[in-house]
Amino acid sequence: MKNAKMKVDFHGILEVGMSFMDEEQRTSDKGEWRRRMTAVRDAMSPDEREQRSLQLCVLLELEVISVLRKRLERPLNICAYGPFRSEASALPLINKCWKMGDQIFAPRILPGGEGMELRKVEALSNWIPGKWGVPEPDPLHTSIRNGMQPLDAVLVPGIAFNEIGGRLGYGGGYYDRLYAGEQGTNHSETTLWIGFAFASQVVRDPLPSEPHDLRLSGLATDEKVIWFN
Ligand SMILES: Nc1nc2c(c(=O)[nH]1)N(C=O)[C@@H](CNc1ccc(C(=O)N[C@@H](CCC(=O)O)C(=O)O)cc1)CN2
Ligand SMILES: Nc1ncnc2c1ncn2[C@@H]1O[C@H](COP(=O)(O)OP(=O)(O)OP(=O)(O)O)[C@@H](O)[C@H]1O
């Protein structure tokens, strides 16, 4: 792990450091982070996860979503996700959004594995277990999002985050590709990409970063919401 040590010590030259790393080193570096941070998340009791998820949802609704609703003077279009393994659950926020008339979309991995589509979910029963058991909208009971509709916010799941916009997911690159696909659309500038996680998933270290990584607008945890430049 010589290179990984170098990255931690020379925070400011992360990009330069990474460019000297070969593919194998990058992958194992991410693998190590994924193992370590999944264990942190798994160690929380189901009760604590539920409690902290509720706190996170209340905070995000209060500080961001309700403000956005007022500012735009219309119901919102939000991309969320069905909770999986020990992830932070956005379900309390999703329920609130449904009550407020917002539209909720969720990702479905495309059958070929190349990327994902967003489908409108209107009830919990719209989610069914998909590839790897990941909850996904049932294609028989949900419709595909019309790409012309602006996405006001995307709640981005992940295994680890830091306070400078770094994020590590499960390694499919799905959210990175979703982000890339949204760039250049007429509403892409206004979409808020918000990391959604427990505070214990936020690390002080620079996480392995690559040019294809999505640019988060902010990060919401059960402790606070922060914004990146
Ligand atoms: N709730 C939720 N939904 C989501 C995501 C997510 O992170 N959370 N995704 C975010 O992108 C996408 C799913 N991405 C995933 C990618 C890999 C694995 C997974 O289980 N990978 C195996 C290894 C597979 C292999 O190497 O062949 C594993 O971790 O054991 C799960 C989800 C879309 N939906
Ligand atoms: N815009 C893109 N176009 C094509 N492939 C991409 C794109 N972004 C990422 N990928 C592919 O996805 C792979 C995995 O990326 P990465 O390790 O950053 O995933 P991740 O962000 O942890 O996962 P996820 O976004 O699914 O939670 C990359 O090696 C790359 O091949």
Automatic annotation (TrEMBL):
It is an enzyme of class 6 (ligase). Keywords: ATP-binding, Ligase, Magnesium, Metal-binding, Nucleotide-binding. Transmembrane segments: none annotated. The keyword Magnesium applies. It comes from the Bacteria. GO terms for molecular function: 5-formyltetrahydrofolate cyclo-ligase activity. It catalyses: (6S)-5-formyl-5,6,7,8-tetrahydrofolate + ATP = (6R)-5,10-methenyltetrahydrofolate + ADP + phosphate. Its cofactor is Mg(2+). The keyword Nucleotide-binding applies. Its EC number is 6.3.3.2. PANTHER family: 5-FORMYLTETRAHYDROFOLATE CYCLO-LIGASE (PTHR23407:SF1), ATPASE INHIBITOR/5-FORMYLTETRAHYDROFOLATE CYCLO-LIGASE (PTHR23407). Belongs to the 5-formyltetrahydrofolate cyclo-ligase family. This is 5-formyltetrahydrofolate cyclo-ligase. It comes from Cohnella silvisoli. The lineage of its organism: Bacteria, Bacillati, Bacillota, Bacilli, Bacillales.
